[in-house]
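Issue 218. Parser rejects a valid record. Input:
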Amino acid sequence: MTAKRGPNPRPGILDIAPYVPGTSALPGAGAVVKLSSNETPLGPSPRAVEAYLEQAAHLSRYPDGSARPLREALAKLYGLDAARIVAGAGSDEILNLLAAAYLGPGDEAIYSEHGFLVYKIAILAHGATPVPAPERNLTADVDAILARVTEATRLVFIANPNNPTGTYLPFDEIKRLHAGLPEHVILVLDAAYAEYVRANDYEAGIEMVATSENTVMTRTFSKIYGLAALRLGWAYCPSAVADVLNRIRGPFNVTGPSIAAGVAALADQPHMEQAVAHNTVWRARVAEALDRIGLHTTPSAANFLLVHFPDGTSAREADAFLHQRRIILRRVEEYGFPNALRLTIGTEDENNAVLEALTEFMDGAR
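Output the parser choked on:
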């Protein structure tokens, strides 16, 4: 008897390694210190929570199809043209919309060697060829990227700062990268962690979008604004690109509660600045403490540290050791770091707990 065959996806789809998020729970009872997903330890603004809850009385109504209140709030805060802002269900959706609009079989898209995994997935999902560019000192290398541009290149993805390294390209390097790209290639600046950067030579991408026709900046409310569960992101685009994305996105791709919470979060800038200040202080303290116990970290401009384990120790064993103490960090083998863990900066108590546990682990490894 011949077995029945079901429908098959397009060639290449089953070759895509699905995105696997950081571990979020452990078996057994007891509280967990979760520092695996780069979430803010301060949580969302109370004003955002209140706005979200108020939307419970309106769940039978469709949201504004263009997320107009959110786009107008963003435009007011940053001095942007609201018509050039596109909202999405997280910046992940924006990245996938860009791939859907501009990539197909025979096309290529470039990203840095240790760049966000979603880039490769989005490229492959639309039949295009992913082209990783080597990094220098765990930082995107402009010359390496430009050397890989061909007639088939359509998109260049740059996470700035990058996840999971935390490194960033100064704005002069971004301008040099853009200047070297053909006009038909879109430079996508993924600035998910932009609010955490306090370097004078950094610019998230607003100026580049304002002065070119082939740059898109993507942002998220998942990190510093603490709204990860709502899946809310946005992009600032040239008018032509915004028009394209609005043609293919879902008609109600952002929920009403998400829009309301996002608007309220933007209105509470003191809460956001408090999160920045907390991160700046504790990122330095944690990095210094890790260095003292023999764990090197990549200098980071974001809200996490890439922790490298020395020869003779194992990140996998450290991860298991931390799990025994109800602590979760992020393993990053799929990013090309088999002997490193990514550590999100948490609350004071969480940071101290992970430092105490890693000290114990390193003492036992000596």
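Fixed in the parser; the record now loads. The domain at 20-44+270-365 is CATH 3.90.1150.10 (Aspartate Aminotransferase, domain 1).
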